[in-house]
Specification:
The complex is a heterodimer of chains A (about 525) and B (about 350). Chain A contains 18 helices and 22 strands. Chain A has about 525 residues and is α/β, with parallel strands linked by helices. With about 350 residues, chain B is mainly alpha-helical. Classes of the chains: A alpha/beta (about 525), B mainly alpha (about 350).
């Protein structure tokens, strides 16, 4: 598929270096319906920072979970210091000298800094009690070594996110980890804090640690990382020295697949504007978002994780209240303060985790379907069950729902059919605008095609669809226009014609070299 | 295309098949219990004696239905017995000292109960406080207010108007009005839970608050309405209790909230919310009522009675937990042979 691209093998890419501290060969991991990793290779060397780069869903998180012993690989080999290892539990990974520092640090808010650093391996006195003075002294020394002005007896709750990262790093050092994984450590940090982190990483390199650094921000990658490995669709597609790769090279590796999947995109005849959003703001998540959505249109919303897409959708749906700007449906301004307001205005939101957020599992199918439109099956305030069943049957047939009975609890249906019930519920509410949050995330190829066909059908019936997706082929294949968000702001609005994956990724990552938004 | 399903799980599906399985089981257990009692005391299971048990359980049934609504929304109302004491005291004082028309006096009980329930509900809804904390607080407040109203004195049977006391005992078609009221409340609750948006909202909010919110059902408002319903029925029971026992005092119905919750739990109303039925709450109340009536007949000491009641509650919860766990497991398989995609 990607034959056009030059693929370096990690082993060729690093001449005359120290022997690898960690080496992965052909690691594969399948989940039901998803191939998360399909034979990835990765090499970490002492004293070097390796960047792991890839789109959302490329398999980075799965790899981290394998390296920290949370998941076990289906195939492949992990070597630490040249010796093959296998991790049955997180403790095994820790014993092998691997520590991960996560985006949201997994520490204990109500314990002190020193306790957090030494939890599980606290220094003991001869009688077997915790040696508090030794713990304090060692924690102080560790934090001093990191140039971190944190007192070890502070409660973690009182620290900033950046300081918590330092505590997590101190913890990693306290267990003598030779391999440190940093999973998007800078996602929540300010510029100054990123500078501090970079200095700490420099220090760790000096101590000969091998570091895996995961980030979406190219600017940082160029500053911090020495080597890179790019993942795409669960495979490693390229590796080499950071200083030998241009931004364009990396973007091409990230997205370099042929967008030749068949999408059942029906050329839409766009009608009037249904949804008009103007200058929508939120104190912390997004700012100055304006766009219109027309009848029969599918607007793709693309961006990296944390770009503010979900938050924008939640504001459109009344789950959070924006601090400024206006929303108009069919030309009339609407005040959306709660999901009930949104449903009344004709905006419905199909959440990403449809099982968890969409269906009431203990309720029968028919009650789930009519949940958002009880007003249609009422007479004098009482629900008419005949009417209710008729409505439910209509949507069950339309969506080809497989259930033994409409009175069956939704929890007894298969996952795919649960999703159909949720979609049926929203259709029954008679919406004008449908917001689909990651409509095909985590479902297999066959179901994806069905969801895409359905999306086209919705648009064909004159509904306006806002599709949040992190999958470029889906965005390119299904959307009439694509809005890209970066760091809470609109980074571009692109027409379908001639749109390339490179353009979108460049806009989402903030690289201006290949950017080509139209005014 | 889906993975092959281990055939063993099919049995679980069959066991969980009927929607009313739990209620059917409970009804069978109740019949069995009556059978066992009948072996030693045949007189217990005569029509008039069973009618007496139902009449004795009437207040429990009414209050269990209110509590069930609250439990469905993943909340709990600990203030129901205090509500009974306060509304009971209020209507007793009205009847004994102010002589309003009987109809107004009786209507004042559910009206005041509704207010007390609404106060609980507002605290839960508007201040976002945990229901258990709110009602633990109002439990004390309501009983305290009963003391303030009465000054700690008792209202005894001779102080009431005869009509006030007579109503629950009046027989219609050979059945006391108290029992008729319970029957009417059961019917009303069946309509509210099964046929109104409010009742549907309680199930939805308890089953999946996020999904309910996305569907435009405000979970806070749904809880508020459930507390109102519970308060209304408790207030009604305030009058019924005082009239039936012909006495009002501050410690009236003390600890009864636990019986009410126990009846719900025995009846399969899930403490975790979203699962329960009118039939379950009624059967649970009857089960508990039968035990409480039968044990003294069988000459069990009051302390052993408490222990036995407690054991039955634990056993009921254990059975329900097991049933729910089984329900969890069948989610993992497609439902029915035709679902293989």
């Amino acid at each position: 598929m990607s034959g056009a691209l030059q693929i370096d093998h990690p082993s060729d890419a690093e001449p005359a270096a120290l022997p690898p501290r960690l080496e992965l060969r052909g690691i594969a991991k399948h989940f039901p319906g998803v191939r998360a990793l399909d034979g990835v290779d990765l090499v970490l060397r002492p004293g070097r920072v390796t960047a792991l780069i890839g789109e959302n869903g490329a398999g980075k998180s799965t790899l981290v979970k394998i390296l920290t012993g949370i998941h076990r690989p289906d195939a492949g080999e992990i070597r630490v210091g040249g010796k093959p290892v296998s991790f049955a539990a997180p403790q095994d990974a820790q014993a092998a000298g691997i520590t991960a520092i996560h985006q949201e640090t997994v520490l204990f808010d109500d314990l002190t800094v020193a306790e957090n650093i030494y939890l599980g391996h606290a220094p003991k006195t001869r009688l077997g009690f915790v040696d508090w003075s030794a713990m304090r002294a060692r924690a102080t020394a560790l934090l001093y070594g990191l140039d971190a002005p944190i007192r070890p007896w502070t409660r973690l709750r009182d620290l900033s996110i950046a300081q918590r990262h330092l505590v997590a790093i101190a913890r990693a050092l306290s267990i003598d980890s030779e391999i440190v994984i940093m999973d998007e450590p800078t996602a929540a940090l300010s510029h100054k804090e990123v500078d501090d982190l970079a200095r700490v990483i420099e220090r760790l390199k000096g101590q000969g640690k091998a570091i895996l650094f995961i980030s979406h921000k190219f600017e940082e990658l160029y500053r911090i990382a020495d080597d890179y490995t790019v993942f795409r669709d669960g495979r490693s597609v390229g590796a080499g020295r950071m200083d030998a790769a241009t931004h364009d090279d990396l973007v091409r590796l990230m997205v370099g697949r042929s967008v030749d999947q068949v999408f059942p995109k029906v050329p839409a005849t766009l009608g009037e504007a249904v949804l008009a959003v103007s200058g929508l703001c939120h104190p912390t998540e997004f700012d100055g978002v304006s766009f219109t959505l027309r009848c029969g249109e599918i607007l793709g919303l693309y961006g990296l994780v944390g770009a503010g897409r979900s938050e924008l959708c939640q504001a459109l749906f009344g789950a959070t209240v924006p601090s400024g700007g206006t929303i108009a449906v069919e030309g009339r301004k609407v005040a959306i303060r709660s999901p009930a307001d949104a449903v009344r205005a004709g905006i419905v939101y199909v959440p990403e985790e449809r099982g968890r957020h969409g269906a009431v599992l203990a309720m029968p199918v028919f009650e789930n379907v009519t949940l958002a439109c009880l007003g249609n099956v009422w007479r004098h305030g009482f629900i008419r069950s005949g009417e209710e069943f008729r409505l439910a049957r209509h949507y069950a047939e339309r969506l080809d729902l497989r259930a033994a009975s409409l009175a069956q609890p939704v929890g007894t249906l298969s996952g795919g059919n649960q999703q159909k019930v949720v979609i049926g519920k929203w259709l029954a509410a008679g919406p004008k605008v449908v917001i689909l949050d990651e409509p095909t995330k985590g479902i297999d190829i066959g179901s994806k095609a069905a969801v895409h066909a359905f999306m086209s059908e919705l648009a064909g019936q004159g509904l306006a669809v806002l599709m949040v997706s992190s999958e470029l082929p889906e965005i390119l294949g299904m959307a009439d226009r694509v809005m890209v968000m970066r760091e809470g702001r609109m980074a571009g609005l692109f027409e379908r014609e001639g749109l390339t994956a490179e353009t979108l990724v460049a806009a989402a990552t903030g690289n201006t070299q290949t950017r080509s938004d139209r005014p | 295309m889906s993975a092959p399903v281990p055939p063993r799980l099919a049995d679980d599906l069959d066991l969980c098949g009927p929607v009313l399985r739990r209620e059917t089981l409970l009804a069978a257990a109740l019949v069995l219990l009556l059978g066992v009692i009948a072996l030693r005391f045949p007189a217990f299971v005569t029509a008039s004696s069973l009618g007496g048990v139902f009449n004795d359980s009437a207040i429990l049934i009414i209050m269990a239905l209110g509590q069930a609504a609250v439990l469905l929304t993943r909340s709990v109302d600990l203030s129901v017995a205090a509500n009974v004491a306060l509304t009971g005291m209020a209507v007793a004082l009205i009847d004994a000292h102010h002589g309003l028309p009987l109809g107004l006096t009786i209507l004042a009980a559910p009206a005041l109960g509704l207010l007390l329930g609404a106060f609980n509900g507002l605290l839960v809804w508007r201040l976002g406080m945990p229901p258990i904390v709110v009602t633990l607080g109002t439990l004390t407040i309501y009983r305290g207010l009963a003391f303030v109203l009465s000054g700690g004195t008792w209202i005894n049977s001779f102080q009431f108007s005869p009509a006030f006391l007579a109503l629950p005992r009046t027989e219609l078609l050979g059945v006391p009005v108290l029992s008729w009221i319970a029957v009417a409340v059961v019917a009303a609750a069946a309509i509210v839970l099964g046929r109104t948006a409010a009742g549907r909202g309680w199930f939805a909010v308890g089953g999946n608050p996020t999904a309910a919110a996305y569907a435009g059902i405000d979970p806070g408002r749904a809880r508020f309405l459930a507390f109102c319903f519970s308060g209304l029925l408790s207030g009604l029971c305030g009058y019924l209790w005082v009239a039936r026992y012909a006495v009002a005092y501050v410690d009236l119905a003390s600890g009864f909230e636990l019986d009410v919750i126990a009846a719900c739990v025995i009846g399969g109303v899930s403490i975790a919310g979203g699962i329960g039925s009118v039939a379950g709450a009624v059967l649970g109340s009857l089960f508990l009522g039968t035990i409480k009536n039968a044990l003294p007949v069988v000459n069990v000491s009051p302390f052993a009675q408490m222990a036995i009641s407690g054991t039955i509650i634990i056993a009921a919860v254990a059975l329900n937990t097991r049933a729910e766990r089984r329900r969890g497991r069948i989610i993992l398989r497609p439902a029915g042979p035709q679902t293989a995609e």
